[in-house]
């Protein structure tokens, strides 16, 4: 199963200057628990936004750069289809960004795990619109802002509608 996992604001903002524009510890915990032990597909800029590879995950990095150097255990491919093909078919694989990779993969994935951050922010990277004729909301869990979270947010899970 191929799953997109992302956090986006009300205006679908993902980030600015290759950084997230909020700090939501509960979203990080959910991301870690869902993706640990799995393959994660990402673009080069998303990979470069991490201080180091995320533990207990196999990183598949998409880049057009030839001879792109990555730490041991990371896989480099030249396009999304190659990234998907290299991943195991019998387990969940996560597409973790960025904006262009989400846009290319949204029609190919089976599920979307989205954290909707209830704010509008300035950004240079955006999540694609979710077409509700193609996607059914199957899970929703609201979290109010608190001392650790500056914004309200909702965990949303969408499954592709069988056509």
What does this protein structure show overall?
By secondary structure, the chain is an alpha/beta fold. Helix content is 18%, strand content 34%. Strands 6-5-4-7-1-8-11-10 form an eight-stranded mixed beta sheet, sandwiched between helices. The protein starts with a strand and ends with a strand.
Instruction: Count up the helices.
Output: 4
Order of helices and strands: EEEHEHEEHEHEEEE
Question: Span between N and C termini?
Answer: 17 Å
Q: What is the subunit organization of this protein?
A: single chain
What structural class do helix, strand and pairing data support? alpha/beta
User: Which strand order do you get reading across the main beta sheet?
Assistant: 6-5-4-7-1-8-11-10
Number of domains: 1
Overall strand count: 11
CATH architecture label: 3-Layer(aba) Sandwich
Coarse shape: globular
The percent range for helix content is 10-25%
Going by CATH, the homologous superfamily would be Dihydrofolate Reductase, subunit A
- Given this structure, which CATH class is correct? Alpha Beta
Average pLDDT metric: 96
Low-confidence blocks of residues: none
Write down the Rg: 15 Å
Helix-strand blueprint:
Elements: E1 2-9, E2 13-16, E3 19-20, H1 25-35, E4 39-43, H2 44-48, E5 58-62, E6 75-77, H3 80-86, E7 93-95, H4 99-105, E8 111-117, E9 125-126, E10 135-143, E11 153-160
Parallel strand pairs: 1-7, 1-8, 4-5, 4-7, 5-6
Antiparallel strand pairs: 2-3, 2-9, 8-11, 10-11
